[in-house]
Design brief:
Layout (H helix, E strand, L loop, with lengths): L4 H10 L17 H5 L3 E2 L2 H6 L8 E5 L8 E7 L5 E3 L1 H11 L7
Antiparallel strand pairs: 1-4, 2-3, 3-4
Length: 104
């Protein structure tokens, strides 16, 4: 899903950048792979814009809204070269936010 320029501006109005904010907001439609199999691979463009290097491992704080609680999730490199979230942390995020297939 790609956002129009106006939608990006609206997103930045909702999620105001702050000094403690690192990264970029993004929108994705949840697929059955993401929800049922607990596999979340980040788009390469998102990894690049967040400064995640191709061979890097670490932890990310993810949240659903600007004021929402943060779920810490480990990330690493998948065999296809894309950054992916640890399935346990990603599942915890999905469950805590009551997210389902098809939601954006």
């Amino acid at each position: 899903m790609r956002l129009s320029e106006e939608e990006v501006c609206n997103l930045w109005d909702i999620i105001l950048p702050r000094a403690d904010f690192v990264g970029v907001p993004f929108v994705t439609r949840l697929t059955s792979t993401m929800v049922d199999r607990h596999i979340m691979k980040l788009p390469k463009s998102l990894s690049d814009s967040c400064g995640i290097k191709p061979d890097e491992e670490g932890y990310a704080g993810i949240r659903l809204t600007a004021r929402g609680s943060v779920t810490t999730c480990a990330y690493g490199m998948d065999t296809d070269g894309r950054t992916h979230f640890n399935s346990v942390g990603w599942k915890s995020f999905l469950v805590s936010k009551n997210l389902h297939v098809g939601q954006a």
